[in-house]
TrEMBL record:
Role summary: Acts as an anti-CsrA protein, binds CsrA and prevents it from repressing translation of its target genes, one of which is flagellin. Binds to flagellin and participates in the assembly of the flagellum.
Record carries keyword Repressor: no
Major subcellular location class: cytoplasm
NCBIfam families named in the record: PRK13285.1-1
Protein name from the UniProt record: Flagellar assembly factor FliW
Gene3D superfamilies on file: BH3618-like
Name of the encoding gene: fliW
Entry-linked Pfam families: FliW
GO cellular component, one term: cytoplasm
Gene Ontology process terms (BP): bacterial-type flagellum assembly; regulation of translation
């Protein structure tokens, strides 16, 4: 299947790789099908692209690669709705807000995207804690300056 994307133009995707968000992503309730694509030349960042609407795409990153001590507890409702049986089938991503210069970009640690990689189901999960920010610094240098 071919789709138009925001960052990569027309791309062939494997329909079996589509991630289904039953209630969409906050702000985009009608966008329920996304695909995760690698962002060329960057090992940390990926693109979460809406299948139906080319203009809807998010740059995402595994928060543990930037904040190794990041920790979250999934509630039972989320575990049940995503049919999670084992933590090995869970991927956690954070949406990146790109800014210029790049070093001022931020990562949303407060509302990670949780994906069941086996069942291809996802949900943005808003953490009930003040321990994490929706605008955490993205670069280790800015983290060191804050700390």
């Amino acid at each position: 299947m071919n789709i138009q994307t925001k960052y990569l133009g027309e791309v062939a995707i494997d329909e079996r790789k589509i991630i289904h968000f039953s209630t969409g992503i906050p702000g985009f309730p009608d966008e329920t099908a996304f695909v995760l694509m690698d962002l060329p030349d960057t090992p940390i960042f990926q693109i979460l692209q809406a299948v139906r609407t080319p203009s809807i795409a998010f740059i995402v990153a595994n928060p543990y690669q930037i904040y190794p001590d990041y920790s979250l507890q999934l509630d039972d409702n989320l575990i049940e709705s995503l049919q999670i049986k084992d933590e090995k089938e869970v991927a956690v991503l954070s949406i990146v807000t790109l800014k210029q210069p790049f070093q001022t970009s931020t990562l949303n640690l407060k509302a990670p995207i949780i994906i069941n990689t086996n069942h291809r189901q996802g949900k943005q999960y808003i953490l009930n804690t003040d321990a994490y920010s929706s605008q955490a610094p993205i670069t280790p240098q800015s983290v060191e300056r804050e700390g």
